[in-house]
Structure formats: structure tokens, C-alpha cells
Specification:
The protein is mainly alpha-helical and 146 residues long. It has four helices and two strands, in the order H-H-H-E-E-H. It is 65% helix and 3% strand. The chain has a two-stranded antiparallel sheet with strand order 1-2. The chain is globular.
């Protein structure tokens, strides 16, 4: 039986909700900053929280207890989940009515796939997502805000 991306997507949706329930939100002090300064503040805060969030994502994938992350950790973790869901959407893009990536790599376990989406994928895409989060927070649109 071939695997598909549906289970990964469902798990990511569940993790996104769980991270939001942990109280993740933009720091209130960021909301009065001009967009450029907000982008810098987000980039610095994410860099400080990156290793703890990497560990948090791996623990969530393994089903381990995570304790109570800080509000910033929950915020960036929820943002990572949304980024991972966005990546799944890109993978479902089609060319000539055929999906570009019809199924996950056969040799990867579900845990490895999720870890790649939540940790390695984030390392490649975080800059764009932080810029979108800054714009979103500055305009109160709520997109990409985790």
C-alpha cells in the first residue's frame, strides 16, 4: 500500500492547534514597532528560540512531554507548523495533472518526515516566514502569525 501526505498533514494540523493552545502570540512590545524594526526583533527572537524550538518540535513528533514552553516558543512553534503545512501544499502542486511529489520518501518513517518538515524545512524557509509574520503583526491581518 502506498503512503500519502494526508497523515502528515493531519498531524501538522493537530500540532498547530496544540501550539496555539500553549499560548503562543506575538510579543505585545513588538506591535508598536515600525515594520522594519519589528522584522529585526522577530529575527533576533527566533534566533534565540531556535534551538529550544527544535527540541520542542522533536519532542512533539516523538510524543514526549514538552512541559510549558514560553509564549515565544509556542508562537514560533505554531509558525513552524504553519510553514510545514505550507510546504505540504507546495508538494501537492501538479504538473500535467500529476503531483510533483505523489508520496513521501519510502525509506522515511512518519517521525522522520515530520521532523524534516518542522526542523530542516524551517531552517530553509524561516527568513521568508519571519518577514511575513512581521508584516502580518504590523497590519493586524493575522496571516502567518502562528
Amino acid at each position: 500500500m502506498s503512503r500519502n501526505w494526508e497523515q502528515a498533514g493531519r498531524t501538522l494540523q493537530s500540532l498547530t492547534l496544540r501550539c496555539r493552545e500553549l499560548g503562543g502570540a506575538p510579543d505585545a512590545s513588538w506591535l508598536d514597532l515600525p515594520v522594519k524594526e519589528l522584522a529585526i526583533a522577530l529575527r533576533i527572537a527566533e534566533a534565540v528560540e531556535r534551538l529550544p524550538c527544535d527540541a520542542l518540535m522533536r519532542a512533539l513528533v516523538r510524543g514526549d512531554g514538552i512541559g510549558q514552553p514560553t509564549s515565544r516558543q509556542a508562537y514560533f512553534s505554531a509558525m513552524r507548523c504553519l510553514c510545514a503545512l505550507d510546504t505540504l501544499g507546495i508538494m501537492h502542486a501538479e504538473l500535467n495533472d500529476r503531483p510533483l511529489y505523489p508520496e513521501p520518501p519510502a525509506k522515511w518513517s512518519d517521525g522522520q518526515l515530520l521532523e524534516w518538515l518542522l526542523v530542516s524545512n524551517w531552517q530553509q524557509r524561516h527568513d521568508t516566514w519571519l518577514k511575513l509574520a512581521a508584516l502580518s503583526a504590523a497590519t493586524s491581518l493575522g496571516l502567518y502569525s502562528g
